Amino acid sequence: MSIPAPAKSSRKGPVGVGVIGAGNISKQYLDSLTVFPDLKVHVIADLFEEAAAARAKEYGIPEWGGVDKALNHPDVEIIVNLTIPAAHVEVATAAVNAGKHVWTEKPFSLDRESGLGLLKAADSAGIRLGCAPDTFLGAGLQTALRLIQRGDIGTPLTGMTTFQTPGPESWHPNPAFLFQYGAGPLFDMGPYYLTTLVQAFGSIRKVAAVGSKAKDIRVIGSGPKAGEEFTVEVPTHVSAMAQFESGASSHSVFSFESPRTRMGFVEITGTEATISLPDPNNFDGDVRLWRAGDEDWTTIPATGPANGRGMGVLDMARSLRAGVPHRATGSLAYHVLDAMVSISESIDSGTFVDVESSAPASAPLPVDWAPETMTLGGHA
Ligand SMILES: NC(=O)c1ccc[n+]([C@@H]2O[C@H](COP(=O)([O-])OP(=O)(O)OC[C@H]3O[C@@H](n4cnc5c(N)ncnc54)[C@H](O)[C@@H]3O)[C@@H](O)[C@H]2O)c1
After folding, report:
1. Which of 44, 59, 199, 309 has the most C-beta neighbours closer than 10 Å?
2. What is the DSSP string of 343-371?
């Protein structure tokens, strides 16, 4: 697919935002989106309008209602799509058809066909797509990526990542969807780890994986449905290797089958040093470096902004006004989705699977990038 010239907005002042999906994660987003002066949240929508109304009240958002209310709002330039994974493409496509730029929560889509369709529709309409995770724009991962790009570890050679928990059914009151197609530890947590690896190494060219499912039935552990059984549809332990275009390789574990919890482990080894990255589900955290000959880690403090979910939307908004590429793009998220689908296919086939798509390189975020500063002038 061609890389389109980035869309530029001729409007002035803060970029208008409409949120669709007033569930759990909308709180974290609205904590940021409603305080960044370069954004103005005009409306929040949900299938359940009462959920949208409650969030609007909580955050002082002037308008709320059903999906069309956000799609048709004249001041909304970016739709922030925080619906469930199965609705991501449908809602994003409706926004593209309404002429709005779209930010979507992860995963970008559940399959290649619908994801590619969305990329093509946006491309031909001159619409920007952004997608979570934006955690790699946070101070922790940006500090690590800057060190890697500066050559502090030499040539990056290998990566290891680990995400292991017993599974979310012990604490999540409604966990069945996390064990269905489009979720599981790979699709739910993979975007954080694989996006980080792609930022460090570049595009993935092929993958090989094994997966397993220890239990066909799990039991809800908390909330009003505690004790209810549900069916596990996807592998709950995935062990995946990736080879990158550069020749580098990585090994990742994604598991809902471990009594011991171990998350956020990401190490990248180069010719001169190993770097330990902070949890890729977070925006902050220490970076540690172990150079050849060292006897212990050297801790490097993270520098830069770490405002939380919504940084990617702000970067997209500022880039839209400036007519420059934004960083957490739909194409990057599609590449990660393509890699995850390929990992699933490799588990089924027992063979290596080629990854056809490529990820565009994301420019580093300037250390002095300041989300709380107004850069786009007064209100439009
Ligand atoms: N909860 C978390 O901790 C978390 C963390 C990171 C990312 N995410 C991602 O955020 C997204 C949302 O997760 P959540 O936990 O907020 O889910 P949720 O179920 O709490 O909220 C989703 C909301 O979207 C609404 N919705 C569903 N389909 C819709 C449609 N077609 N049109 C309009 N509204 C629709 C639902 O009514 C609901 O209010 C998911 O993609 C998830 O992967 C969640």
Report:
1. 44
2. HHHHHHHSS-EE----PPPPPPPPTT--T
Residues with CB under 6 A from ligand 1: 20-25, 46-48, 51, 67, 82-85, 87, 91, 105-106
CA–centroid distance, residue 84 to ligand 1 (Å): 4
The two domains 15-134+309-328 and 155-270 share their CATH topology (first three levels equal): no
Distance 147 CA to ligand 1 centre (A): 34
Residue bearing the CA closest to ligand 1, atom 26? 83
Nearest CA to ligand 1 atom 18: 23
Kindly tell me if the per-residue pLDDT of 378 is higher than 70: no
Domain spanning 15-134+309-328 has what CATH number? Answer: 3.40.50.720
Every domain of the chain and the residues it spans = 15-134+309-328, 155-270
Superfamily grouping for domain 155-270: Dihydrodipicolinate Reductase; domain 2 (3.30.360.10)
Largest CA distance in the chain: 61
Confidence at 83, pLDDT banded by 50, 70, 90: very high
Residue 379 scores a pLDDT above 70: no
pTM exceeds 0.85 for this model: yes
